[in-house]
Amino acid sequence: QECSKKQKNDDTQSTSVDALSSNDGSEEKNEFDTLANAKILLSDCLACDSCMTLEEGARVFQQNQKEFFRILNLNKKCDTSKHKVLAVSLCPQSLPYFAAKFNLSVNEAAKRLCGFLKSLGVHYVFDTTIAADFSILESQREFVQRYQRRNQEEHALPMFASACPGWIRYAERVLTNLVTSHICTAKSPQQIMGSLVKGYFARQQNLSPDKIFHVVVAPCYDKKLEALREDFYTALYNSPEVDCVLTSGEIVQIMEQKNVSMKDVTEVAVDSLFDDVKEGDVVRHDGKRSDGYLEHIFKHAAKELFGMDVKEITYKALKNKDFQEVTLEKDGETVLRFAAAYGFRNIQNMVLKLKKGKFLYHFVEVLACPGGCLNGKGQAQTEDGKPDRALLAQMEEVYTAIPVRLPEANLQVQRMYQDWLEGMDSRKVQDTLHTTYSAVSQSTSSLDIKW
After folding, report:
1. Cys-Cys crosslink for 112: which of 128, 265, 387, 420, Cβ 3.0 to 4.6 Å?
2. CA distances from 222 to 81, 247, 361, 370, 450 (A)
């Protein structure tokens, strides 16, 4: 891995970040002072020093366990006007890590993780699966609309998935509007969860969004950067939709620091966003290592565009196991051609084909991590930073065993479309569940990076 600016930026960024995050000794010490500060390295994800500004570096640096405990400690003080409601949202791809690492079922892992977080002082613990429901449904609808406009709009197809922040940053910082115009506008599950917690839930609880401190537990470091995007910020309340992202590994660090074993934690049911509904067992979406955008969109498009019910999808591996394609044939003609491209070697090959006008696919599920979200660098890593393959194999087994629930089958989502979002075609749906992506000018071209 090479990066032309990395070496000369290392010292500058470290100095600047330390200065910006300094608190001149006024912050009281606590038992978590020894926890590592958050820093994103080239080996962790795409967000290396070359595409991170000093300001972003400083803000990412502050997204760590210390900030989490600063809020917890603040809530223990007497000045209630400064107290915040602490809400933690758990990504489905993080739960198999805890289940495999501590030899638990995924439902036990969710409940024990909830119990541990609440023992620290967290008020609510949510599952982000409902946010993925919204993201998938909006992505399905957008693909069908783009397909129907493909002859009128040059950039309607192909459509690229938008859930992976590493891929999004690469597209915006390195590629051109030729590529960003193809990215689906549906927000990622993390940021839709931010809208749900700081919008829907805050209103239900009669809370101002800035009175909620929202933490997301995710498998990857790039999610920290995603939380910093300006379009995921409520200016009226000076409040981001997600205040802090902690990786699964950082949560385990907290457990180790407190000398707590998951086996000893009391099980507590995960909370529901709805007062009249109890959260059930953990469910997932189609897809072996991610939220399964390809499978859901493929089946939906087959039905909506061609009247075909696809029950099972057959993947065809191409150059490697992280680049696979799926096709739909009707009357001897291939009418849909989808692909899954994981890891930056496959992403770069895909982009080169697009630029050469040799792109055959209608939709591509793009993920920065080889192997998908379960293999996020914030979990299942050995001490030397390499993938823990044995643990990852266990995680895949756990994840595959989780029951699948179709987004269309979630009655709470259908209810929220009507009660909260004012209908599926409303302006509020666009404002709440969608965003825009565009090229960001860079001082140097990062196409020289060899992945």
Report:
1. 265
2. 33, 10, 26, 14, 19
Domains and CATH numbers, the chain: 48-130+189-264 (3.40.50.1780), 134-187+285-433 (3.40.950.10)
Write the single-letter amino acid at 189.
P
pLDDT for res 154:
84
pLDDT of residue 29: 47
pLDDT 10s digits, 130-171: 999 999 999 999 999 999 999 998 888 999 999 998 899 888
Question: What are the C-alpha distances in Å from 290 to residues 128, 148, 312?
Answer: 13, 27, 17
Q: Give pLDDT, residue 26.
A: 41
- Please say whether the beta carbons of 421 and 429 come within 8 A: yes
Q: Using CA atoms, how far apart are residues 117 and 69, in angstroms rounded to an integer? A: 11
79 CB-near residues (< 8 Å, 6+ apart): none
Q: What share of the chain is helix, strand, coil (3-state, %, to 5)?
A: 45, 15, 45
Please tell me the predicted confidence (pLDDT) of residue 291: 75
Closest by CA to 70, choosing from 81, 89, 55, 86, is: 86
CA distances from 144 to 106, 375, 376 (A): 34, 30, 30
Give, in order, the Cα–Cα distances in Å from 310 to each of 76, 291, 316, 344: 54, 18, 16, 30
The per-residue pLDDT for 35 is 55
Question: Which residues have CB under 8 Å from 403's CB, separation 6+?
Answer: 281, 283, 284
Tokens describing residue 171 = 């597209």
- The pTM for the full model equals 0.85
Q: Give residue 1's pLDDT.
A: 36
How far is Cα 388 from Cα 371, in angstroms, rounded to an integer? 12
Residue ranges in the chain whose pLDDT is less than 50: 1-33, 39-49, 443-451
Q: CA–CA distance from 279 to each of 129, 227, 231, 291, 373 (Å)? A: 11, 25, 30, 19, 24
